[in-house]
Amino acid sequence: MTIARGMSYLGQACSAAEILSAIHVQSMDRGRGDGFVLSPSHYALPLWAMLVALGELSEDEFNTFQQDGSPLDLIPSGEVPGTIFSIGSLGQGLSQAVGLALARRLRGEQGKIFVLVSDGELQEGQTWEALMTCGHYQLVNLVILFDLNDSQVDGSVDRVMRIDPVVEKLQAFGLDAAEIDGHDLHAIANAIEAGDGKRTRAIACRTCIWKGIPSLSHREKLHMVSFTKDEAELARNDLAKGASA
Ligand SMILES: Cc1ncc(C[n+]2csc(CCOP(=O)(O)OP(=O)(O)O)c2C)c(N)n1
């Protein structure tokens, strides 16, 4: 899709594919009323590709991505397929997920809220206000997964504005936090299961923004990816080889 449209958020697909799969295929129970909030909505493309693989979105609809009138925008917002909602204005998704989880608890409703948050959003104050709220209310019906891909618009998160040590900070805010390899499907699903059941579970997933496409590894910025014809060929070869980062 990135090649077809000239450019897109491909690195986010490389970093978060396993996180999205673990949430949607292994951990979420729709029968129980579980739901997903995508805070960084520019991550929607891999979510939709996965829904196509699961048979929950048609190829025809997927192919309307970034076309006039399609709900499948590059940076979608509102009722986004596969989500309870998604937010184009970064830093707000966790607050809304916290509100949802708290409302469900107050109403005695079942079902967990899973929320994906990007590392750039950990530079925004509102995210920390939401985390403080989790610590206060101990929302056990909320599971937060952070994609720590060390990428933001201007390059490395660590260089632009360091957020580490993330796990220690989450623990200090009263969350049940763990750090894992965000490309290990089983580790992600296990980490979701392994929560203490008393505090909000927060999982820091360390990932690689060019995972699976090593021909991109020399690029300093991978927030948005475009290809020349030759680069597209190299990327296709990488994917065909199933090359790993
Ligand atoms: C409040 C807000 N500020 C700025 C933007 C523009 N923006 C879109 S994506 C992005 C990068 C955010 O960091 P992250 O999601 O960690 O980057 P990635 O991993 O996708 O490279 C920014 C600043 C936005 N959508 N919302």
Automatic annotation (TrEMBL):
<feature type="domain" description="Transketolase N-terminal">
    <location>
        <begin position="34"/>
        <end position="239"/>
    </location>
</feature>
<dbReference type="GO" id="GO:0004802">
    <property type="term" value="F:transketolase activity"/>
</dbReference>
<protein>
    <submittedName>
        <fullName>Transketolase</fullName>
        <ecNumber>2.2.1.1</ecNumber>
    </submittedName>
</protein>
<dbReference type="InterPro" id="IPR029061">
    <property type="entry name" value="THDP-binding"/>
</dbReference>
<keyword id="KW-0808">Transferase</keyword>
<keyword id="KW-0786">Thiamine pyrophosphate</keyword>
<dbReference type="Pfam" id="PF00456">
    <property type="entry name" value="Transketolase_N"/>
</dbReference>
<comment type="similarity">
    <text>Belongs to the transketolase family.</text>
</comment>
<dbReference type="InterPro" id="IPR005474">
    <property type="entry name" value="Transketolase_N"/>
</dbReference>
